[in-house]
Amino acid sequence: MRRAQLIHSLGHAALAVLLLLPTPAPAQHVTEPALKAAYIYNFARFTTWPDDVMPSGEQVVLCVLGDASIGEALERTVKGRTLAGHALGVSQPSVDAPLRAGCHIVYVSGMTADRAGKLIAGVRDAPVLSISDLEGFTKVGGIAEFFFEHGQLRFSVHLASARRARLQISSRLLSLARTTK
Fold first, then answer.
1. pLDDT beyond 60 at 4
2. What is the pLDDT of residues 19-64, one digit of tens each?
3. Beta-sheet strand order (sheet of 105-108)
4. Nearest CA to 61 among 126, 116, 117?
5. What is the spatial distance between Cα 161 and Cα 142, in angstroms, rounded to a whole number?
6. Which of the 8 DSSP states describes residue 122?
7. In this structure, what CATH number is given to the domain that contains residue 167?
C-alpha cells in the first residue's frame, strides 16, 4: 500500500512540475528520474548566474554524477531547449575525476553526503548550482537537496551556499522550498 501511495504522490508532484514547463507534455507515467530531471531543469530556469559566467553563445552545462538514470532523463528533458538564449547540454563525468570547471549545475547522487561534499568542494565558491538527493547534502556545502515528505518530492535550499556561489535563486522557486540560512 505504501508503494502505491508513493507512486500516486509522485504522479501528483510530476503533474505540478510539468505545469511549470514552458511547453505542454503528453500525459504519461512519470518515473522518479524524470521527475527529478524536471525539477533540475526548473532550478536552472529559476536561477540567475553572474553575467561574467555565461558569455553570449556559451552552453549551459548540467553535470550528473553517480546516477546515469537521472543523466539520461535530464538529456531527454533539455533536448532542444534553451535557457536565456543558451543551449543546454548534459555531461556525466566520472565520480573519480575532479569536477569540470565548465559545469553550471551539478547533480550528485549514489554516494554518501560526506563524499559528495568532498566532490563539490572544488566548486563550492564557484557559481555552480549543486543539487543532490543525499540526506545532509546542504549541511556539507550543497545548495539544494531533494527529499520526500508525505510521499511527495520536495526540496530545500541553503541560502548561504547560494550567496557564496553568487547565484540568485528566484523567489518563485524559493517559495516552494524549505530554506535554511
1. no
2. 444 444 455 578 999 999 999 999 999 999 998 888 778 899 999 9
3. 82-83, 86-91, 60-65, 105-108, 129-132, 144-149, 152-158, 178-180
4. 126
5. 7
6. G
7. 3.40.50.2300
144-153 long-range Cβ contacts below 8 angstroms, 24+ apart: 144/43, 144/177, 146/36, 146/39, 148/6, 150/9, 151/5, 151/6, 151/8, 151/9, 151/10, 152/9, 152/10, 152/12, 152/13, 153/10, 153/13, 153/32, 153/35, 153/36, 153/39
SS (H, E, C) 28-40: CCCCHHHHHHHHH
- Tally of structural domains, the chain: 1
Distance CA 164, CA 91 (A): 24
Residue 23 phi, psi (nearest 5) = -120, 150
Residue 170 structural domain? 2-180
Contact at 8 Å (CB) between 74 and 64? yes
pTM: 0.82
Judge whether 65 and 107 are in contact, CB under 8 Å. yes
Task: Residue count of the chain, please give it.
Answer: 181
Whose grid coordinates read 553575467? 51
The DSSP line for 12-64 is HHHHHHHHHSSS--------HHHHHHHHHHHHHHTEE--TTTS-TTPPEEEEE
